[in-house]
Design goal:
- It is a single chain.
- The chain is built from three helices and 15 strands.
- By secondary structure, the chain is mainly beta.
- A hairpin with a 2-residue loop joins strand 2 and strand 3.
- The chain has a six-stranded mixed β-sheet with strand order 3-2-1-6-5-4. A six-stranded mixed β-sheet has the order 9-8-7-12-11-10.
Length: 187
Amino acid sequence: MTPSDPSTGLAAIAEAAKQAPGRGLPPVHLWHPEHCGDIDIVIRADGTWMHEGSPIGRAELVRLFSTVLRLDPDGYHLVTPGEKLKITVEDLPFRAVAMRVDGDGLVFTTDVGDETRAGPDHALIVETDPVTGEPAPRIHVRAGLEARIVRSVFYELVERAEVRDGQLAVQSDGVWFPLGPPGAGVE
């Protein structure tokens, strides 16, 4: 694989992402190429996408790469019909940076522009960070990929919460999601 060959590496990933019908997501679940190795792309815990130690500064390029991201049993990969390149993800690949109420549902927007509605198919989960002891909320976005809910959005959730069965909880599309016990850093 050479950097100048447009049929491999980042160029191929960008081209495959552009081939999605309409503005939808490419069908990465249907692509099963051989593993081609690792690529020096890291999604840092703060959501910054890095390539060879430098931030990827173009939001459009990050969005493009995010559309061909897949979680396999051996980790995160950028996938095209002809290549599968493993990347590093320090925490979760996305950040839920905004939330809005839509009817009886809560809709989260990620840092790469995906929208996901909490409900039966998109769980909102709050665990406790073992290092800090603070809540570590996340939401399922698509195909096993999750977004870390940023602190300001989590505060919005807590403001909407009700006490149910001794837990603060929010409801979206008929599903109650526990946020944690009152008084445990979530009130």
